[in-house]
Every structure is written in C-alpha cells, then in structure tokens.
Design brief:
This protein is mostly helical. It has helices at 5-16, 22-26, 29-49, 52-75, 81-94, 97-100, 108-121, 123-126, 143-156, 164-182, 192-213, 217-241, 246-249, 251-265. Helix 12 crosses helix 14 (251-265). The longest helix has 25 residues, at 217-241.
Length: 266
C-alpha cells in the first residue's frame, strides 16, 4: 500500500485519540523535544556517511516529529499541520521573487542579500525592532552551532572583517595569549580560569576562520571526528593482529600503528 502525507497526519491523530496509544497520548511539545534533536542528529550522521537509504529512513523520523508536534498543538487550539505548510509555502514564495515573480538576480550573493531584506520587512521581524541581535540566537543550540550563529548574525549587521587575513591574525593572537597564560601555570597556580577564557577565544576565532574560508566549522569537526574514529578503529584492528590489547602497546607502539592506519586510509 502506498501511503501519503495525509495518511501520516491521520496516523498521528489516531495515536493521540482516546483509544490510541497510551505513550503517544502522554506526550507534549516539551517531552518530544529530545526526540526531535535525536532524529535530526541521526539524519546528519546518515548524510555524512552518504547512506541514502538510511537518510530516507531518518528523514521520515524527522517528519514524524514535525507532524507529532503539530498534532499536539492542533489539540491545544494553537495551530495545525496545514498552518505549518501554509506558512512555509508563503514564506518561500515571498522570499524568492526571482523565481515566483519578475525580480531579476545575477548570483547567489544577490539572492542572499534580497532574502535578508525581505525577511527584515516581514511582520514577525518588524516587531523585533529595537531588540538585540543576540535575542535571535537560540539558547538550545549545540555550543559550536551557536557560536556560528552568533558570528553570522553580527556579521549581517556589519560587525565583521571584510577579508580573511585579519581573522587569521586574530586567531594567531589568541593562540599567543593562551600560551602566555600556560606559562603562568605552577604547582601553586593552575590558572584554570584564564586558560579556559583564552582557549574559548581560540575556538571562537577558529569558527570565524571557518566562516571566512567558506565552510561550516561544525561539519569540519564532524569530519575530523569521523576520520579519527576510523583510524583508531584500524589501530585497534592492527593491535589485535599482533595479539595485543591497545592498552598494552605503549605510546611509541601506538604511534607506529597510527602511521600504518593513516597510510592505509590514504
């Protein structure tokens, strides 16, 4: 049987009905939040792996969470899934006049500028006039993603270097300040607060380096994590071939296995 989006909406209605599923009936928008985060993360993992079948499955799980939240809100008299669809369709058409109207654009940069201009004129954004740019940064975002959003938003209002070079210089400056604080560490003074402050500045600057270099710092770190994990799994495999546990090999031996794993990956 071929199911449609409307079928999914009806399934959620039935699950939440009086004779539906006890667990589904107990949920509210707050209790469901962890699942939305979890399913989104699992889709990201699948996309990073290039696993199209898994991506399709995980997108279904994300869509389920969207419809679930909308169903809860429908029961509360707040809005329905139709309102959600209507709102996003209106927004996409309104913000793409070069596609759905007669406006002309020459490149993606012009599209972005026009998008922000239209966005600023919308009623939901006009009511935010006079508020801080920081008010729009989500408190629940993961730390790295939140850093990226902070930098992106202040750059939109002009608080940004126009070219990469000063950003790189600032990152090097923060490294130097961290090393200076590290030299102050002694048995009597761990200097932890200052080290954390300076290390945080380094990380903040590196996120800005990524933005000015044209890529997403979170994606880059995910790739680095995946690469390290893959290579260390290979180190563990090589160790098993030697009949040894990783913890028994020692640093020098592990470094040799790491070089082998790195060469094998290439």
């Amino acid at each position: 049987m071929k199911y449609t989006f409307d079928d999914l909406v009806d399934i959620l209605k039935r699950l939440r009905a009086e004779n539906g599923c006890p667990w589904d009936r107990e949920q509210d928008t707050h209790s469901l939040l962890p699942y939305l985060v979890e399913e989104s993360s699992e889709f990201i993992d699948a996309a990073m792996d290039g696993d199209k079948a898994h991506m399709c499955e995980e997108l279904g799980d994300v869509l389920l969470q969207v419809v679930f939240h909308a169903q809860v809100c429908r029961e509360e008299g707040a809005f329905t899934i139709d309102d959600v669809v209507q709102g996003i369709c209106e927004k996409m058409i309104r913000r793409h006049p070069h596609v759905f109207s007669d406006a002309q654009v020459d490149n993606s940069s012009e599209v972005s500028r026009r998008w922000e201009k239209i966005k600023a004129q919308e009623a939901t954004h006009l009511k935010d006039a006079g508020k801080s740019v920081m008010d729009k940064v989500s408190r629940s975002m993961p730390t790295l993603a939140r850093t990226q959003d902070i930098i992106r938003r202040v750059a939109k209002v002009g608080f940004d270097w126009g070219e990469p070079a000063p950003v790189f210089d600032k990152a090097q400056e923060e490294f130097a300040e961290f090393r200076a604080e590290l030299e102050k560490v002694s048995p009597e003074n761990a200097n932890t607060d200052r080290l954390e402050d300076e290390f945080g500045d380094i990380m903040f600057c590196l996120v800005n380096v990524a933005r000015h270099s044209g890529f997403n710092a979170d994606v880059a770190l995910r790739r680095a994590n995946a690469k390290f994990e893959k290579r260390f799994r290979e180190v563990e495999r090589l160790a098993r071939e030697q009949g040894k546990a990783v913890a028994e090999i020692g640093l020098e031996g592990l470094q040799q296995l790491w070089k082998q794993a790195k060469a094998s990956a290439r």
